[in-house]
Amino acid sequence: MIRRVSRQVAETVLSSGWMYLGRFIGLFWAVLLTRETSIAVYGAYAIAIAVSVLITVPLDHYYVVRTLRVDEDTFLGDRTTRVIGGGLLLVVGALLLRGDHFLSGFAIGKAGGEIAFNAVKSGFIRRGHPARAMGVDTVRQVIGFAATAAYFFSADHPTLIGIAAWTLVSFVPFLAWGLWEARQHGPRRPEITSRTAAIVAEAVGGAVYSQGDIVAVGAWASHSSAGYYAYGSLLIWSLAAVGQNYSYTFTESLRAADGHHTAGPSFRSSMSLSLTLGGAVGLTAVIMAIAGAPAELVWTFAIMAVVTVPRTLSSIFTTVLAVQHRDQFRTAVTWVSVAVKFVLLLGVARFGGPAAAAAFVVSDLVMTYAYSRAVHLLADVDGGTP
Fold first, then answer.
1. Is the pLDDT score of 312 beyond 90?
2. Residues 317 and 273 sit within 8 Å (Cβ to Cβ)
3. Rounded Cα–Cα distance for residues 93 and 95 (Å)
4. pLDDT of 140-173, one tens digit each?
5. Is there a contact between 109 and 164 (Cβ–Cβ < 8 Å)?
6. What is the b/e burial string over 172-188, where b = at least 16 CB atoms within 10 angstroms of the residue's CB?
7. N or C: which terminus of the chain has fewer CB atoms within 10 Å of its end residue's CB?
8. In terms of domain of life, where is this protein from (predicted)?
């Protein structure tokens, strides 16, 4: 038991370290783009990234969930399908960029690149080694940053189209890697069942939940407010991934126990991790205030500190529920949370980042309560069976 826990802690720490190195690169790029242009330009860039996620997640989440629970032959066929589909979208996006269509070209092309790349690293996730997956992800981000930064500083008049084009180029080595790995395994047709529909519906809801608010703030407030909110959102979802990485270290034991919650993360350890991360965001907001950062950014981060706790818990619970095949339940909870968030955003998004962060707090408390009750409270009543 001690050896198992030690490995899981080590995997979580190492994967989080790799992830945060990658996130730091992304944050550095965001700051650089804002400094050299404006917060409004970064806001437009962040909106395009958000739209890209809205495309990626519904198309890829079906395979992400299956990675955790299908047999090896099925997994290999799924991986080939992801690589081919991602490559096709990458090409479509590149063609649209050539036609001067920034938003659609970048969003579609980046979605394709991410899908192909996710296929490449999916084997590491399946085998319970998120540290290796995050290490490869960091390498990808270094390559992407190097390519876009080289263009940004060498071009006389860099544009968002040029930045987008070089970002897409950075995915090509990983697409080639994926095609090489897939050469001996034919693509597998997706299953069309009610369970598949539930998984896709959950993914659409999750994408809207995580990225739709950035688009909404940009549309109902301003690109500048979208930029400030995107900074906070980037941090929160990055921190929540620590919880996800932690939960991934339990995937093999959860599968072996048929999803029994006692084979997964304990509630106490999950809460401790979440509170620690929330405190880190709160400290960041205090430092920003002392440093004289814009008030909208400071208040956005201060409220996001509260969001961090339920968001991290939800990320942990999601893995357990996925292994338990509770897809319809996750879908229902996700869409209820989406409805709560966007009803609130309709009334407050025009007030900018802090108001949107407050809406995030309410909707995430709804999701976390439902997930926690299903994983721990109700499971304790019925003996822990899925």
1. yes
2. no
3. 5
4. 999 999 999 999 889 888 899 999 999 999 999 9
5. yes
6. bebbebbbebbeebeeb
7. N
8. Bacteria
3-state secondary structure (DSSP) of residue 6? helix
List pLDDT tens digits, range 352-371. Answer: 999 999 999 999 999 999 99
Kind plus residue range of the DSSP H or E element containing 75: helix 72-98
Looking at residue 191, the DSSP 8-state letter turns out to be P
Q: 308 and 238 in contact (C-beta within 8 Å)? A: no
| pLDDT score of 379 | 54
Which amino acid is located at 88 in the chain? Answer: L
- Whole-angstrom distance, CA of residue 309 vs CA of residue 314: 9
- In this predicted structure, which of 1-10, 55-64, 155-164, 287-296 has the lowest mean pLDDT? 1-10
Q: What is d(CA 161, CA 151) in angstroms, rounded to the nearest whole number?
A: 11
Buried b (16+ CB within 10 A) or exposed e, 125-142: bbebbbbbbbbbbbebbe
Phi-psi region of 98 (alpha: psi -120 to 50; beta: other; left: phi over 0): alpha
Q: pLDDT confidence of 26, banded at 50, 70, 90?
A: confident
CA angle (362 as vertex; 303, 375 as ends), nearest 5: 115
At residue 325, φ and ψ (nearest 5 deg) are 65, 30
